[in-house]
Amino acid sequence: MENNQNNLFQQARNAVMNFMNQQNNASNAEDKQAAQNAIQAAYQDATPEEKQQLQQLENQLRQHNQIQ
Description:
Shape: globular
Strand content: under 5%
Structural class: mainly alpha
Organism: Virgibacillus dokdonensis
Helix content: over 70%
Protein name: DUF3813 domain-containing protein
Distance between the termini: 38 Å
Number of domains: 1
Oligomer: single chain
Region (Disordered): 22-68
Number of helices: 3
């Protein structure tokens, strides 16, 4: 379970980074949704520390979206 959760957390981070790195891509909305879905999935069993980091990722996602 711990290993699976860590994997979900890593996937969420990767999805957000992927979205941020492809800001001019036509599939931007899909990438953003994928990142949000990954964050939500990781939230389910996240430790308090991970939840804090996921919150930061969500904030980055929002800020990045407002800049565009």
